[in-house]
């Protein structure tokens, strides 16, 4: 009895811990960002006084059942278009001849088990768990890993680790005895090896850029009539600005009808033509098929893989919805429809093997042929949406880690932070897609190119998920091995078959991916050099006090708001500005802007201020939600900052100075710092090419960090500084 009571108490404690874990993870987005700002975004220099602002109490509520069902419905039109339309293409792409029933059943068994093992088991039940606060994709996996492993590589990728992650990490692993020495040694190896960290970072970039490359290729395969494709694509990309909710409002009914009709037609074909095809659930037919056909069966894998392209988009689009919604949609709607659709086509082909080149449309009953033709045409357009939305999410994650040139990210929903749209990325993808359609004229090379990069994304995802399981989840080693080796073998076999497509058009997405990798690598390298320069040449509060106490320094009346990032200390551009103007306003506030992943920050919690030295120099972190108006032009902003700074004043003279500076509206000036990098002569040719040309071009054409701020242009001064690195 005593042992039973202890067991009940233990189970209840575990329940409470898991309930707390849900609450912690729900608040992790807000918690992690707040902690980053207080510990990473702002900094406390020796002798600095800090005015603490209460952290936000805004919590993201766990979605109710009806909201989850609604999101699951909306995900049909955003996430599953590509994966859901695969029955149209798979059998027709096999190019099989002299087919027997065993060949067709073996092919069906291969398709069914690939869908089950790779998509259902791997992505739906395992990979979706490895999300970064609701965000998915290779970059989200990388960010998730960085939250639990200290990175010290040369690449200046923003650290996303925070104390809230440590709490969540502890709760998540409570009571787990897995991992052991291998987990500890793996973590130590990754933390101590800069080369391993660099390789992991580059690997993530490659996987991320391959998804973007697939995002440009997927829409290009939607139609074989060039001019129709171009018109439809332009309309599709123009519609993206309406946001995820409105796009799904139009697309989700189409896909729901598509899945429902395919389910029904599949059942009809099975019953009418060959009910015995259900025996394909036995995997031994796959073995028989390979033993009989050998290399032909191996070549067939490239076509079978078309049946699971779009699975990577399921993970990458996670931020637009939530994990439970995507799991429900796939398990209850998409998976059954796909299985029965393939089975129905197989049943039809057993009696009509000569129709395999047009298997899907030939298997349609005559009475529903034209309605299904219209629905399939609409579904083919929707199929492009998953990769377009995934590209927006990936770029947003890349920006959060500082690995991509700044572009405009527009939040299209007040309820779901992950639903975003980027005009620049949208139009870039449109140009690439239309260019591919016109250049290849919708030919077979585009069809051959499809799926080549997806397999590499899946392999990289398997590798990253294994690290998560071993180091973060501390899963037992046996279970980790049972995940890693089967999936690496399965995906490796598919990869070897898809290599044949590279000369036949598969090089296209690889070239697009290489372009984006070069952009990311150049931008991150330039940022790393900039950070390194600022760390070596940053000012101290003692140096700042010494400069301000000089007899030659003029202190003019009024206030100066200098926009600069204080994440690495007082940047050298502040020294550059003071020394060359030989003049500083009575009140100088160094302003750092932070955008939080919540809709709004209450005004009373928006400012975080502190003193820098003793000469009227202050710092101020301004925190905005993505839905807040970043208006800083009116007197209210200046007055609110002055009022907050008065709380830090040491005496009445300082209070009076702050009040007078805020009141003198015409004597307030806004200064924007701009740095330009130049490689020195000692650098190699590649370094000079990257810094002087590629990075400078990207910097010049990227969105300004303060472009959205409502600063009065008539009182704005831009100060430039050349960093010779």
Give a verbal description of the structure.
- The chain is α/β, with parallel strands linked by helices.
- Helices cover about 60% and strands about 10% of the residues.
- Strands 1-6-7-5-4-8-9 form a seven-stranded mixed β-sheet, with helices on both faces.
- The longest helix has about 35 residues, at about 500-535.
- Residues about 1-65 and about 160-175 have low confidence and may be disordered.
Strand segment count: 9
Radius of gyration: 29 Å
Low-confidence stretches: 1-63, 162-176
- Net shape: elongated
Going by helix content, strand content and strand pairing, the class is alpha/beta
Note the main sheet. 7 strands, mixed
Binned, the helix content reads: 55-70%
Distance between the termini: 73 Å
Q: Which features would summarize this protein structure in a list?
A:
725 residues, 28 helices, alpha/beta, seven-stranded mixed beta sheet
Write the layout of secondary structure elements.
Elements: H1 2-26, H2 28-41, E1 50-51, H3 65-78, H4 81-84, H5 101-126, H6 138-146, H7 163-172, H8 180-192, H9 194-217, H10 226-239, H11 244-273, H12 284-293, H13 295-304, H14 311-316, H15 323-351, H16 359-362, H17 369-382, H18 385-400, E2 410-411, E3 420-421, H19 423-440, H20 444-449, H21 452-472, H22 477-498, H23 502-537, H24 541-548, E4 554-563, H25 572-581, E5 583-596, E6 607-611, E7 617-625, H26 635-646, H27 652-663, E8 668-678, H28 685-701, E9 716-724
Parallel strand pairs: 4-5, 4-8, 5-7, 8-9
Antiparallel strand pairs: 1-6, 2-3, 6-7
Helix pairs in contact: 1-7, 2-7, 3-11, 3-15, 5-12, 5-15, 6-21, 8-21, 9-18, 9-19, 9-21, 9-23, 10-19, 11-15, 11-17, 12-13, 13-22, 21-22, 23-28, 26-27
């Amino acid at each position: 009895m005593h042992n039973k009571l202890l067991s009940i108490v233990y189970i209840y404690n575990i329940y409470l811990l898991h309930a707390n874990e849900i609450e912690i993870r729900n608040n992790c987005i807000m918690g992690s960002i707040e902690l980053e700002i207080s510990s990473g975004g702002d900094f406390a220099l020796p002798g600095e006084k800090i005015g603490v602002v209460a952290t936000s109490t805004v919590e993201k509520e766990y979605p109710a059942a009806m909201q989850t069902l609604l999101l699951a419905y909306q995900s049909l039109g955003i996430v599953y278009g590509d994966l859901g339309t695969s029955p149209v293409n798979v059998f027709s792409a096999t190019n099989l001849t002299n087919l027997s029933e065993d060949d067709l059943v073996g092919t069906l068994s291969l398709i069914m088990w690939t869908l089950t093992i790779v998509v259902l088991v791997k992505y739906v039940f395992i990979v979706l768990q490895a999300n970064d606060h609701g965000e998915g994709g290779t970059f989200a996996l990388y960010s998730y890993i960085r939250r639990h492993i200290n990175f010290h590589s040369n690449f200046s990728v923003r650290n996303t680790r925070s104390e809230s992650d440590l709490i969540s990490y502890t709760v998540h692993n409570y009571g787990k005895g897995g991992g052991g020495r291998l987990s500890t040694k793996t973590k130590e190896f990754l933390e101590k090896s800069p080369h391993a960290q660099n390789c992991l970072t580059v690997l993530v970039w490659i996987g991320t850029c391959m998804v973007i490359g697939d995002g440009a290729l997927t829409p290009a395969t939607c139609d074989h009539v060039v001019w129709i494709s171009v018109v439809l694509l332009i309309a599709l990309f123009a519609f993206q600005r309406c946001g995820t909710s409105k796009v799904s409002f139009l697309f989700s009914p189409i896909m729901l009808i598509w899945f429902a009709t395919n389910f029904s037609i599949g059942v009809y074909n099975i019953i009418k033509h060959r009910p015995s095809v259900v025996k394909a659930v036995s995997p031994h037919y796959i073995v028989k098929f390979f033993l009989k056909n050998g290399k032909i069966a191996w070549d067939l894998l490239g076509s079978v893989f078309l049946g699971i392209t779009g699975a990577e988009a399921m993970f990458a689009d996670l931020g637009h919805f939530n994990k439970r919604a995507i799991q429900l949609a796939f398990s209850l709607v998409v998976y059954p429809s796909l299985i029965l659709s393939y089975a129905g086509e197989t049943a039809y082909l057993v009696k009509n093997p000569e129709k395999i080149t047009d298997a899907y449309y030939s298997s349609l009953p005559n009475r529903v042929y034209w309605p299904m033709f219209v629905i399939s045409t609409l579904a083919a357009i929707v199929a492009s949406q998953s990769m377009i939305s995934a590209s927006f999410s990936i770029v947003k994650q890349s920006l959060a880690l500082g690995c991509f040139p700044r572009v405009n990210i527009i939040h299209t929903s007040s309820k779901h932070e992950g639903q975003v749209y980027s005009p620049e990325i949208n139009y870039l993808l449109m140009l690439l897609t239309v260019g591919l359609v016109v250049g290849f004229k919708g030919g077979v090379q585009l069809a051959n190119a499809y799926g080549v990069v997806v397999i590499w994304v899946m392999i990289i995802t398997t590798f990253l998920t294994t690290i998560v399981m071993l180091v973060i989840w501390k899963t037992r080693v046996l279970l980790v091995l049972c995940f890693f080796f089967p999936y690496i073998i399965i995906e490796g076999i598919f990869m070897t078959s898809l290599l044949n497509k590279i000369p036949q058009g598969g090089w296209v997405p690889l070239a697009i991916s290489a372009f984006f990798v070069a952009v990311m690598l150049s931008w991150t390298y330039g940022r790393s050099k900039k950070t390194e320069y600022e760390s070596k040449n940053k000012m101290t509060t003692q140096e700042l006090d010494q400069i301000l106490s000089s007899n030659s320094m003029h202190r003019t009346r009024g206030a100066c708001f200098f926009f600069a990032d204080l994440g690495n200390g007082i940047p050298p551009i502040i020294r550059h500005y003071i020394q060359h103007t030989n003049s500083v306003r009575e009140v100088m506030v160094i302003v750092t802007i932070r955008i939080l992943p919540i809709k709004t920050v209450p005004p009373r919690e928006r400012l975080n201020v502190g003193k820098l030295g003793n000469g009227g120099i202050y710092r101020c972190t301004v925190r905005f939600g993505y839905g807040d108006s970043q208006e800083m032009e009116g007197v209210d902003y200046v007055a609110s900052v002055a009022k907050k700074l008065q709380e830090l004043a040491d005496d009445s003279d300082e209070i009076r100075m702050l009040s007078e500076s805020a009141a003198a509206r015409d004597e307030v000036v806004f200064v924007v710092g701009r740095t330009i990098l130049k490689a020195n002569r000692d650098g190699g040719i590649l370094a000079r090419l990257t810094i002087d040309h590629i990075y400078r071009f990207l910097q010049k054409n990227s969105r300004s960090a303060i472009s959205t701020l409502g600063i009065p242009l008539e009182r704005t001064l831009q100060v430039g500084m050349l960093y010779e690195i």
